[in-house]
Amino acid sequence: MVTHAHWRQFDYLLLITVTLLIILGVVMIRSATLGVESLADRVSRQVIYGLAGFVAVFVLAALDYHLLASTYLWIYGLILLLLFSVGIVGQIGGGAQSWLNLGVIPVQPSELAKVLLILVLAQQLSVNYEKIGNLRTILSSLLFWLIPTFLVFIQPDLGIAVLMIIVWFAMVWAAGLRWQHLTMFIVVGLVMLPFVWSQMLDYQRARITTFLDPGANRDLSYTIDQALISIGSGGLLGKGYAQGTQSQLRFLRVRHTDFIFSVIAEELGFVGAVLVLVLLLIVVLRILRAAQLASDPLGSLICYGMATIIFVQTVVSVGMNLSLLPVTGLTLPFVSSGGSSLVTLLMGIGLVESVLLRHPHSHFRVPGRL
């Protein structure tokens, strides 16, 4: 049972920082969707999903993460069921068949999978913690991870599939993956690249080739050009809220999701963009702090997994806005419009808080390298 003493260990700074990011996101989504009738409900939906996510934070924080992890096979089965269902009756959105319509609520199972799979992998690795140097242990966890990752890849959702692979590497590395095994996986991954390339759809390959050679496809490079113009024209303090020419005149596409960072940089300037990055950095650092305070490998690995998701999504989202990385569709955590993404990220924060509520005064440290 969670007592008052437990709640004193709740990381309120983490929750406040996340709240500030969500509020800023709602404000910027409103600016990015002003005057667009088809996107008129984006702000209200983001608020509703945010409130639902906050409920999830406190519910999951109150639940013992050990109890949740003990049901990992049921969680894994649910993930596979949802991902298989998407392939059969899923709705198409953004070029991918990745949505399920549960009554009046659209759900993106791949977003849910990337967070819940952290719990599955953390339980597997913690149970076999003393055998982490055994290749069989690593391969077993990889097989578990690759099945749902493949189902996400064929939706197709390359961005989340790649993110899931990175999260797996980060968690097994934190658990103590041996250098020899890491080298082997890197070599195998490089050998598999031609096969992965052949399985990608034309528009996915076009995103990568356009990144390497912007002149190869002017239509695809148009949005990147507009994003760079938005960021460059914002200056130090920006053009003012809802005053960005690229966003308000609709030159910048998908500005409420993939390119929300460009809207922030144009309207709030360098200062606003840096503020967002600082807030996200605080979130990652507070989660890593929770990993260090955890009482056991299970808690630490859950936190390392969540820190990896938020860090990688931030780097990729900002990177594609700055034309430093190919466009993948990954959202800026807690800021971009997207109900499934927001709720599942907040669920992850709830898991981190659950770890913190149960850490003893003498904390456990995973002998990992993150």
Structure description:
This protein is mostly helical and 370 residues long. The protein has one domain (4-357). The chain is built from 15 helices and three strands. The chain has helices at residues 4-7, 12-33, 42-62, 65-70, 72-89, 109-127, 135-153, 158-175, 179-199, 202-212, 218-233, 245-248, 260-293, 297-321, 339-357, and strands spanning 91-93, 96-102, 105-107. It has a three-stranded antiparallel β-sheet, covered by helices on one side. A hairpin with a 2-residue loop joins strand 1 (91-93) and strand 2 (96-102). Helix 5 packs antiparallel against helix 6, helix 6 runs antiparallel to helix 14 (297-321) and helix 6 packs parallel to helix 15 (339-357). The longest helix is centred in the C-terminal third of the chain and has 34 residues, at 260-293. The radius of gyration is 20 Å and the shape is globular. The relative contact order is 0.17. The mean pLDDT is 87.
Keywords:
370 residues, mainly alpha, 3-stranded antiparallel beta sheet, 3 strands, 69% helix
User: Strand-residue fraction?
Assistant: under 5%
DSSP strand tally: 3
Shape: globular
Distance between the termini: 32 Å
Structural class estimated from helices and strands: mainly alpha
Order of helices and strands: HHHHHEEEHHHHHHHHHH
Strand order of the largest sheet: 1-2-3
Task: Give the C-alpha Rg.
Answer: 20 Å
Portion of residues in helices? Answer: 55-70%
Overall pLDDT metric: 87
Tally of separate helices: 15
Number of domains: 1
- The poorly predicted ranges are none
> What does the largest sheet look like?
3 strands, antiparallel
